[in-house]
Write a structure and sequence with these properties.
The protein is α+β, with helices and mostly antiparallel strands. 18% of the residues lie in helices and 30% in strands. The longest helix has 11 residues. The protein is globular.
C-alpha cells in the first residue's frame, strides 16, 4: 500500500503530540467528490476543514474563485477562537478530496480530555 504523510492542522503547529492525537480522534472525516457543494450547507458550514487529499476552491457569493487550497491547508479555522464563520464564502472541491472536519464543540471535547 501507499504510505500517506501525516497532515496536521496548521493552527495547532507545535502542540503536544497527545493533544494532536485527541484532536484527530474528535475530528470527523469526509470524502467529497469534485464540485460537491454540501460543504457550504448547515451544519458543515460551521466547522473548520483540513484538506488531507485533493484540491478545493474557496468560492465567493457570486461563484467566483477567491482562493485555492491544497493538502495541509485549512478553511474556517477562525471558529476555534470564537470568530464567526465565513458567511460569504464556501469550500468547493476542485478534485475528489478527503477532509477532516472539526467543530468548536469537538475541539472543546479534545481539550477537556487533554486537561
Amino acid at each position: 500500500g501507499r504510505l500517506m504523510r501525516r497532515v496536521d492542522w496548521p493552527c495547532f503547529k507545535g502542540a503536544d503530540t497527545r493533544l494532536l492525537h485527541l484532536i484527530d480522534l474528535h475530528a470527523e472525516r469526509l470524502k467529497c467528490a469534485m464540485g460537491d457543494t454540501s460543504l457550504g450547507e448547515h451544519p458543515l458550514c460551521d466547522m473548520a476543514f483540513l484538506l488531507d487529499t485533493g484540491v478545493a476552491s474557496v468560492v465567493g457569493e457570486n461563484g467566483e474563485e477567491l482562493d485555492v487550497l491544497s493538502v495541509g491547508q485549512c478553511f474556517n479555522e477562525q471558529i476555534f477562537v470564537g470568530a464567526a464563520r465565513h458567511r460569504d464564502r464556501r469550500l468547493v472541491p476542485k478534485t475528489d478530496c478527503e477532509l477532516r472536519l472539526l467543530s468548536r464543540q469537538n475541539l472543546r471535547r479534545a481539550l477537556a480530555e487533554f486537561c
